Amino acid sequence: MKVAIAHDFLVQNGGAEKVVEEFHGMFPDAPVYTSVYSPEIMPSAMRSWDIRTSFMQKLPLKKISHRVALPLYPLAFESFDMSEYDLVISSSSAFAKGVITRPDALHLCYVHTPMRYGWMHHAYLERENMPALLRLLLAPTLHKLRTWDAVAQLRVDKHVANSSVVADRIQKYYRRDCDIIYPPVDTERFTISETVGDYYLVAARFAPYKRLDLAIEACNKLKRPLKVVGSGRQDEYLRSLAGPTVEFLGRVPDAQLTKLMAECKAYIMPGQEDFGISPVEANACGRPVIAYAAGGALDSQLDGASGILFGAQTVECLCDAIITLECTRFNPALIRAHAQQFDTTVFRSKVTSIIDDYFSQRSNNPLNYRTNPQ
Fold first, then answer.
1. Which of 231, 199, 227, 20 is nearest to 109 (CA)?
2. Which domains are present in the chain?
3. pLDDT by residue (tens digit) across 320-342?
4. Which of 178, 253, 256, 309 is the one with CA 20 to 30 A from 171?
């Protein structure tokens, strides 16, 4: 059985890319089709993969083309020849679902979210510093992308959502039912530390919807130490907000981030995430999470047990959550046990089951494929 993987773009290393790594771990011989790829940004292990890029890789502005060349992405994925593959797994928050497969092939799409700037453009652009005229000029492009996306999702045989909120969006925008499989977390990489510091931790791309400003301003107000890991286009703005208790660490190696998670007082997720892998990783270290009570946090966190949820994205509500957490006793072992339901072994088992079920329904003799059990 020939398998291929498709992913929107490999120019940033976040939760969606960890899912791609897991799919590749299951099917190590599968080529990965993507629009653009920046090896200097992605994990070094990817350099040994068979990564096949589109014509967009050759654009002069390829490092920013994923933001400024939106109309080209549908063409990029439709240009890939997928006719030799029996199974295509797309990892998509926008365009990868648009690959065209054989009629008898299975196209399984792991949906991180329906196209955010197509279907939820008002909310997506709300915190972007974009001139009103540019938003107006962008409207026809977004309309065309919505139309394309509605057609492209019909090519998918099986949708899988990464959280309950994404499943609801798939039902609303695509009118399709789907299974939910939470993103994989390698909980074995994390252990409970005997030493816990007095700092809070946030690790994310510096994008407006991540709402890192809330974490910074809350820790400023309460004079609590906060370590900020990451980088992005809001770097200058966020640093301008920071008081003396806030420390920016930039991008750090995985081993250092793991140590920071294991020793933090709590991890903060102030934005609404479609799921959010990092908070679960912090839970795998036995550390509680303070999260905005929306999106994936409603699936991944138990209020009062694995962390504290706050109901409004305001500095005051986050401050109240921090104080509540400091007055709450948490059991690190129980927090870690909670995180283990999101382990990579669970993810692989559920994905394999969906593929088996699909082919067994089509034939009494399903295609013989092999996944890497490791």
1. 20
2. 3-184+343-362 (3.40.50), 187-341 (3.40.50.2000)
3. 999 999 999 999 999 999 999 99
4. 309
